[in-house]
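Quick start: read one record
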Amino acid sequence: RGGFDSPLVRSYGYPEGVTLMDFASPHMKPYVDSHWAKFPPINPMWHYVLGVINVMLFILAIAGNGMVVYLFNKHKPIRTPSNFLVVNLALSDFIMLTSNCPIFIINCFNGGQWSFSYLNCQVYSALGAVTGICSIWTLVCISLDRYNIICSGFSGPRLTKGKATVMALFCWILACGIASAPFLGWGSYTPEGILTSCSFDYLTQDIQTKSFNLFMFTVNFCVPLSLILLSYVFIVKAIWVHEGIMREQAAKMNVKSLRSAESNEQRAEIRIAKTAIFNIALWVICWTPYAAITLQGTLGDFSALSPLATTLPALLAKSASCYNPLVYAIGHPRFRQAMTLHLPWLCVQEELPKSTTTEDNGTSVANEQNLQGRRNSQNSSV
């Protein structure tokens, strides 16, 4: 209790002996775990800091994910089955932050308490669960697609629109099924951390809650992570072997490199794979802390589960929804070409195909290249 009455707590303007639980709305207190009553209130400045961070995440989510969807609809050459999965990822990320961030921001700037009903808490949590699980499994599908292209070669079975649609539907159906379980009595949703957000309950120690949490940890973290890592281990190995063969052939022909003779498509696929590897690494960094926190709570060890220690990892996990489109847009050559053509104000310079007759929304790519050439000429003259 001494910590509650410390000068630091009193300096925030709170009465002596006040706890974090005292900041919960009266109608929400029955749903808040008693664990949070063990902690004094956090510095009020944290609410404003977290609110501002979520405002920035909200803007990035709309801009980044919206850009991916816009370019996919605008630029015909990138409407491939593989990129359909990227758009599915952008869509789930877009829904996650646009559905969660506004509510979190309102709570942060409204005294740091959950300002809505318990039903809103459940819906908030369910939307976060659906979109989070869908994003995770979409990344698995992208990894498997990259594995098929890089390791099986262009002679292997290619991803079709039908297969991509089935994979996307699988991600959404799986996510909706798991997220609906708490409404049916398996697990539950509850306020967490500093009580400005809600998530699934990882503190209650009954068998229903623990079994649900262990299922979530296994199906939505361990299994996807294993599939992703396994896919990219083989991808990296294939790229390494490919680079070795090219160096060996170049040495035999007494030239520095054979890259000028490589297939542009093959090089593009390898570049996409490298981008995807970076994106997956970023996902692991963002989601592992929160997965570790929830597992620790499920196993009954609450020693490190302070309000901020649970809120910050949750925020880091959701921030992955902003990084995904930025990484793919920056690293994907065809998306960069689309940005060069349709969003020139972003100042992205990507070399366009030299010859093609593919139509893009009624305008040939050849004509687009002529426009790009005139633009470059104007820049040169300036």
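The beta strands are 189-192, 197-200, 359-360, 363-364.
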